[in-house]
Specification:
By secondary structure, the protein is α/β, with parallel strands linked by helices. About 40% of the residues lie in helices and about 20% in strands. Bound molecules: 3-isopropylmalic acid (IPM) and magnesium ion.
Amino acid sequence: MNKNIFVLPGDGIGPEIVLQAVKVIKAIDSAFDHKFELSNGLIGASSIRDNGEPITDKVIKKGKNADAVLLGAIGEPEYDNDPSIKVRPEQGLLKLRKSLSLYSNIRPVSMYDILKDISPLKNKNLKNVDLVVYRELTGGIYFGEKTLSEDGRSASDLCSYSVEEITRIAKMAFEAATNRRNKLTLVDKANVLETSRLWRKVVQEMAQKFPSVEVDYLYVDNAAMQMVINPAQFDVILTENMFGDIISDLSSVLTGSLGMLPSASIGKSAAMFEPCHGSYPQAAGKDIANPMATILSVAMMYDHFEMFKEAQAIRNAVNWALKENVVTEDITTENPTRCSVVGDLIAHYIEEKGEVSLNKRYMTEALNTVI
Ligand code: IPM
Ligand code: MG
C-alpha cells in the first residue's frame, strides 16, 4: 500500500524521536511490502527561526493533503521563560490542529507489567489499568478570544463550546466505549462552568442512544484524585480541551513514564499522530530521550489506516524491547539504551519478524558506540 506521511519533527527532542519512528515506518515497509512516501516540514521554534512564524501556510496545506501527519514535539525554554513574546512555537501546533480540524485527540493508557515498579503508584492500585482519554482538541479556552488590557494589568481567555463541537467527539467516545468495556466518564466542572453544563446535557442525551454504555460524571478535581487512588475504574474518559491536557499527563505517569504515551488526533479528513510528552529541551541532542511514545503513535497511525497487522507488529516489537530491557534512562538507570539504539532494535525486530537474537542486539549497540 502507498501512503503519504508528512513528518514534522519540531523542537527539542522532536527530531531524534521522530527519526526512530521513521526507522519503524521503513521497517514496516520492508516487512509488509508497502511504500510509504515521507516528506518533512518545519513547525514550532525551528519554523520561527527559518520563516519568522511557527507554521507556514505551505506546511498547513501539505498537512491537509497528506494521508497522515507525524509530529515530534514543540517548544523551547527561551519562549517559556518570557511571557511577553508574541510569536510562540505552540501557536504552530494549535493552528495546525485547528486548520486540519483535528477535533478528537485520543490518548490510550496501557499498563506494561515490566514498568509497574517505576510507576509512582503502588502496585495494588495499578491492577487492570486500561483507559483512553478522548480530549476535545479544537475548541474551549485554548481557542477562545484572548485579551490583555493596554496597561497589562488584566487579561482574559474565553472558553466556549457549541453543541456541534461536543456532539462530534462525544459520538466517537461512545463508539469507542462500545468496543471496550462499555463505560464512559465525562470529566467536567459542571458545578461552576456553563460550558460544562452544556457538555453534560449533550452527553446525557447521547447516552440514550448507547444503552449498553454505563455513563458517569466526575468533576475534574475529583477525577484527578480518582486517577491516583483508583485508575482502574476508568475505561473511556471524555473531556474538553484543557481538562484533557491535564488529565492525560496525569494518566500517563501511571505507566511509569510520560515517554510511553502515544496519541492520535482525528478530524473530518486529516489525522495526526504525536507523542503526548513535550520537547524535553534538557535532553535535546543527547540521544537519551524515550522514542517509544512516538513509535506507539505510529502504531496508532497504522490502526487508523486499518492496517492492524502492521500496528500489532510495532506493539510486539515495543513489548519485546521492554522485556529485553532495551529502554532509555527514564525507565532504567542500569545500562540505559540510547534513543537511536532503541529505534534501531525495534526496527530490526520488525524487519526480522521477531527473529532477533541477543547477540545481534549487542552487535548493534557496539556498532553504534563505534559510530
Ligand atoms: C499536548 C501539549 C500541547 C497542548 C502544548 C504543546 C500546546 O501539552 O499536546 O498535550 O497543550 O495541547
Ligand atoms: Mg499536554
